[in-house]
């Protein structure tokens, strides 16, 4: 569908709008990028060397020969997939708008790309058509909370321990909005109104669980909490997101095309250090 100056829902793009529009780039808007490590590449495939077994050390007597040992190596390959959006606006809307309509529409595409990145990362099936595989494609460590909901933080202690047992150290938890609300309502005790979740007095939306930051994404399956170690989660981006404007493709109708493209993939280098927390069966 094309957009014109007469389109009902474009008033915010015209000079009548109040204040400046500030739109965060895709990377800042994606929860997956916030909990992982963003790696920007300029090639088609990103290769990560993995050490699957360390070289062996041993106690030796003074002057004795030291037996050599080799590490066992493997390699993880990640080829970023393309996510893209295209929208069309009239030349009048583009020229009469302040700020430029094509930039605002492009920013909107960038926000939706961020949502698509998160949807692929947290996809319940672990696979997105034409997209990269996400967390659910992995064999992660697991933990549970009670069948009537997370009434305490025992699940978090278990998740932290499970990750540590595999050499990890959780840097964030992430869950869906409904579960985050349940956690926010958990009190320190039956006679207390103080929330059990840690909060930053300088930020109303900042939350932590046993010292680990808690983030929220609507792309996470309801009732699921992930424990993430950012060292082992890489969001691989090929170049930066591109916002491009073309006036030639729709020359005969005097319209302008606005296109946003991004190539992104996920590399999980140590899945067992990640933890999936769900309700007890």
Characterise this structure.
With 281 residues, the protein is of the alpha/beta class. The chain has one domain (23-51, 70-279): hypothetical protein PF0899 fold (2-Layer Sandwich), CATH 3.30.2320.10. Helix content is 20%, strand content 33%. It has helices spanning 26-29, 31-35, 91-96, 101-121, 154-165, 177-185; strands at residues 2-3, 37-41, 46-53, 72-78, 81-90, 141-145, 172-175, 198-200, 203-209, 212-216, 225-228, 233-246, 255-268, 275-279. The strands form three sheets. A seven-stranded mixed beta sheet has the order 6-14-11-7-10-9-8. A five-stranded mixed beta sheet has the order 1-5-13-12-2. A hairpin with a 2-residue loop joins strand 9 and strand 10 (212-216). Mean pLDDT is 83; it is low at 10-24.
Write the layout of secondary structure elements.
Elements: E1 2-3, H1 26-29, H2 31-35, E2 37-41, E3 46-53, E4 72-78, E5 81-90, H3 91-96, H4 101-121, E6 141-145, H5 154-165, E7 172-175, H6 177-185, E8 198-200, E9 203-209, E10 212-216, E11 225-228, E12 233-246, E13 255-268, E14 275-279
Parallel strand pairs: 1-5, 2-12, 6-14, 7-10
Antiparallel strand pairs: 3-4, 5-13, 7-11, 8-9, 9-10, 11-14, 12-13
């Amino acid at each position: 569908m094309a957009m014109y100056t007469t389109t009902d829902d474009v008033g915010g793009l015209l000079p009548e709008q109040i204040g400046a529009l500030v739109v965060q780039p895709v990377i800042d808007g994606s929860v997956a990028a916030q909990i992982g490590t963003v790696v920007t590449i300029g090639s088609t495939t990103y290769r990560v060397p993995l050490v699957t077994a360390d070289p062996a050390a041993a106690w030796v007597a003074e002057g004795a020969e030291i037996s050599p040992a080799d590490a066992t190596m493997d390699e993880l390959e990640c080829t970023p997939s393309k996510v893209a959006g295209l929208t069309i606006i009239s030349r009048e809307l583009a020229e009469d708008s302040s700020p430029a309509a094509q930039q605002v529409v492009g920013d909107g595409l960038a926000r939706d790309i961020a949502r698509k990145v998160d949807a692929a990362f947290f996809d319940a099936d672990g696979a997105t058509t034409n997209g990269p595989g996400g967390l659910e494609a992995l064999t992660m460590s697991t933990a549970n909370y009670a069948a009537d909901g997370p009434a305490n933080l025992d699940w978090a202690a278990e998740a932290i321990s499970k990750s540590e047992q595999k050499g990890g150290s959780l840097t964030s938890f992430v869950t869906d909005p409904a579960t985050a609300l349940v956690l926010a309502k958990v009190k320190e005790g039956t006679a207390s109104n103080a929330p059990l979740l840690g909060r930053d007095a300088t930020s109303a939306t900042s939350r932590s669980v046993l010292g680990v930051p808690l983030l929220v994404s609507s792309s996470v399956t309801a009732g699921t909490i992930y424990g993430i170690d950012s060292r082992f989660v890489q969001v691989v981006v090929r170049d930066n997101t591109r916002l491009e404007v073309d006036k030639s493709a729709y020359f005969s109708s005097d319209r302008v095309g606005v296109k946003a493209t991004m190539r992104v993939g996920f590399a999980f280098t140590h899945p067992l250090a990640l933890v999936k927390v769900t309700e007890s069966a």
